[in-house]
Write a structure and sequence with these properties.
Distance between the termini: 115 Å
CATH class of the largest domain: Alpha Beta
Order of helices and strands: EHEHHEHEHEHHHHHHHHH
Radius of gyration: 24 Å
CATH architecture of the largest domain: 3-Layer(aba) Sandwich
Strand content: 5-15%
Oligomer: single chain
Shape: globular
Largest sheet: 5 strands, parallel
Strand order of the largest sheet: 3-2-1-4-5
Length: 366
């Protein structure tokens, strides 16, 4: 009797990078892994990003999505995501690859990939919502003969393999100081000194030098036409935002999204060494993975304000470890003239009110 045939080591379909909140080429372990597998096994390389309202409208760890003037509008966040996604699309195109941009639910879209596809994504194992999404996608892919592999990637400063065991996770009420002690910082609240056996921060990995060829003419459900992607208002309407939400979101200035803009900020910060000025925008870029926390950290080690940078980055990880949004984080907006005018009106009203109270007090004394 002949022995049973072994299953082939390599799957028959393409290697697929499911792009999530890691919209960058530099320091992206998940991207390097999936593209590397495609090159070694001589398979096509496919990149897919899905605009998912469940993610667009949710609070992101390390970032307070939107909340100004008592009105919430998630379309503001979607504007920044769009810019970041389009920037990645252009970077991949310049490198000879291609990004397919869809809208809907990944568990409905990714199973339409060719049978035998090997999908890989960055997955933050500290986030319960991430578990649910990845489990749903994995289950739907298996039904079509494909599979999902997850990578820790570089969502935060520390890689989970370098961390303490979950049972040793300190009480959240211990705050940043307690976490710093666990990670080997002598006193992170005061300085940037570390113990000799401090938890290791992994080095930055370079962007892929070349990409395996993409699949031509691959069609997926929810694929967004190029003309809609080019029109911010049209895309926001397609995603289901109301005209009121869109108008409100577009009335505010936001940082330019994308890895190139994040790298420009990095260069400016290294040159001018003004962390207080750069940090609010860095938070937004780290939120979408346009730049990694550990790349910022690697530059900070040679900077005079290293201790301040380290505190911010470890504090961001503190919230991530506890599956919390950083409610006190900066907002994804910049002041425009309208915002400034409203602030001046409020200030004037407060001054007028105080002046009246002083006048009444003076009359009473008289």
């Amino acid at each position: 009797m002949e022995p049973a045939a072994k299953k082939p080591r390599v799957m028959s379909g393409p290697c697929v990078w499911w792009v999530r909140n890691d919209l960058r080429l530099q320091d992206n372990p998940a991207l390097r892994a999936v593209n590397g597998a495609a090159l070694v096994d001589k398979r096509n390389f496919v990149c897919v990003y899905v605009f998912d309202r469940r993610n667009l409208d949710a609070c992101v760890n390390g970032f307070s999505v939107t909340d100004f003037s008592g009105k919430k509008t998630k379309a503001l966040h979607a504007r920044f995501v769009r810019q970041s996604v389009l920037a990645l699309r252009d970077e991949l195109a310049a490198a000879g690859s291609k990004l397919l941009i869809c809208h809907g639910k990944p568990e409905d879209i990714l199973p339409a990939l060719p049978a035998g596809s090997e999908v890989k994504c960055q997955h933050d194992h500290f986030q319960m919502q991430d578990y649910r999404f990845c489990n749903d996608v994995a289950a739907s892919l298996i039904k079509g003969g494909s599979k999902l592999r997850t990578d820790f990637g570089a969502t935060g400063l520390y890689h989970p393999h370098e961390l303490f065991m979950p049972k040793d996770l300190h009480d959240r009420y211990g705050g940043l100081g307690a976490l710093g002690k666990v990670l080997g910082w002598k006193d992170i609240l005061k300085n940037g000194e570390r113990e000799d056996n401090a938890t290791h921060v992994r080095p930055v990995v370079s962007a892929p030098s070349r990409f395996s060829p993409p699949m031509e003419d691959l069609q997926l459900p929810g694929l967004i036409p190029a003309d809609v992607l080019a029109d911010e208002t049209a895309l926001l309407k397609l995603l289901g935002y109301s005209s009121e939400e869109i108008t409100e979101a577009q009335s505010h200035m936001i940082p330019q999204g994308g890895e190139p803009a994040a790298r420009d900020l990095l260069v400016d910060w290294v040159k001018n060494k003004n962390w207080a000025k750069a940090y609010p925008d860095f938070v937004n870029y780290m939120m979408m993975g346009c730049i990694s926390a550990r790349e910022i950290f690697s530059h900070a080690e040679k900077m005079p304000d290293f201790a301040e940078v380290a505190r911010h980055l470890v504090w961001r990880d503190f919230h991530r470890f506890h599956n919390e949004a950083e409610d006190t984080g900066p907002q994804l907006r910049r002041q425009n003239s309208g915002d400034k005018l409203e602030e001046m009106k409020v200030m004037k009203a407060q001054i007028d009110s105080m002046q009246k109270k002083l006048e009444m007090l003076g009359q009473g004394i008289a």
